[in-house]
Amino acid sequence: MISEFSNPKTQEYLKFKKEVLDCYFPWCWTADSVQDEDDNPHKNPIPVFTHTIVKRPLDPPDYNLYPKQTSAYVNIANSILQQIFLYNKINVECVFRIGVNLTIPVIGSEKTLPHVDHDFPHKNLLIYLNGGDGDTVCGGESFSPKEDAIIVFEGEHYHYLPSKSRRVVLICTFM
To answer: Is the pTM of this model over 0.85?
Structure first.
């Protein structure tokens, strides 16, 4: 089930969004956004630009047992998420991952493989930082992006690539 929440659009959020959408924001290239259950890549790989703010636990190569800060944007991301969680009365026990993803249209590919972000119970929060298209699908429900929209869901999901321009989202996994 996909639930939509309110975005208080605080000064910190607007500043972060402006920086992320700026041409100087640091991105890392990943050749394929999702591996299937057997760690096989897509027939047509779906590249993604990422900026990891808090690295998920147990990710290679270091396999930390805990989430790890990896970006100078961690403090502003933490503030924004706290504001959103408090504003929407969302109870959070632990954050596992925070990152920003940017996808672009890819000829021959329309969506990512269905996947879950962790092998343990968690919820996903997505904030659509721009007005690009690329629906998110979870549990048979589909959500069409709107700039500044916030959704929360859990379980297997996938998303469509944008048909034009770019799709930029902040992702936070938590319990």
So the answer is: yes
